[in-house]
Amino acid sequence: MADNSTRTAYTVDSLLAVTVGVFNERGYDGTSMEDLSRAAGISKSSIYHHVRGKEELLRLAVGRALDALFAILDEAEAETGPPVDRLEHVVRRTAEVLLSELPYVTLLLRVRGNTATEQWALERRRDFDHRVAELLRAAVTAGELRADVEPRLATRLLFGMINSIVEWYRPGAKGTDGVADAVVHLAFDGLRAR
Amino acid sequence: MADNSTRTAYTVDSLLAVTVGVFNERGYDGTSMEDLSRAAGISKSSIYHHVRGKEELLRLAVGRALDALFAILDEAEAETGPPVDRLEHVVRRTAEVLLSELPYVTLLLRVRGNTATEQWALERRRDFDHRVAELLRAAVTAGELRADVEPRLATRLLFGMINSIVEWYRPGAKGTDGVADAVVHLAFDGLRAR
Fold first, then answer.
1. In this structure, which CATH number among 1.10.10.10, 1.10.260.40, 1.10.357.10, 2.60.40.1120 belongs to the domain A62-189?
2. Which of A50, A60, A78, A151 could be disulfide-bonded to A137 (CB atoms 3.0-4.6 Å)?
């Protein structure tokens, strides 16, 4: 436990920032309240002052990622215009949210477990994927996207590409500029020169 | 331990097939020789008759995936012709090897640890990625691929898309036909209709 003189004043947000790092490093299952207390430098009872426990911290952390992703679907560019343009906007913004909320989205993508919170997160993630798949299907129907790639498969490959960014992206690393641009280029027009 | 009357006669290959399933389910670190003995239905000493231990089983299993991947680079279509065609062949075959050697490639992609075998696997995987990145760079230089996506980034997104297949592909599942075709279409020409 940290001594009082160096104790940090936490808000729920700053506590979450510490928590998400520990969850990503040790795994949610492998993290104890003791680990969180040590990483934050405050007592467990100080943490319980903010949240009911570990599962609430998980819900808040993945909730932050999910809220940022769902907010994309409410942006004007995602709601009006030809389906292909709306999809392109959603793909670009999904990559951008992944980069700006990297630790939170990383945690979301690693959720696998059986607690109610993990099930809830998996379900909301599937909802988001379905919303994007519907947009993709609308673009195929409109003749804007090729019809020879099955929409469900295309959506999976698209998210596979976007989500893989969490495996290697480090903020400020060299050569990672234009990641969202690259995703959009590759997804919509491919790598071939024209 | 299984009783003698039901004991299965194992070869290294059939023992590996059982092992890779257990490693993928419980994680390499989380698997004991006892777990392997139980899953195979033979005694630990019978396993030691085939291999020196758990780490050798890992080496053989990820080695199988790596050998299949590196063999692609020696195929005639990967060695002659315009770089873009060679790259397209390698991308298609990488997806096909992933599907045909699914449990072995899945294990390879999950290797993270610090044993000598895991370090060796990570290094060989990086070598393979570098070989593909070189081919991609050659195709950009030849003007066959767009120059506005940095080759290293393009390679990462490409492998991100291909490797993500292990997360959802189940052999024989409906709607997974043409996975390798879809990867090639998306990677080289994108989803946009022309």
1. 1.10.357.10
2. A151
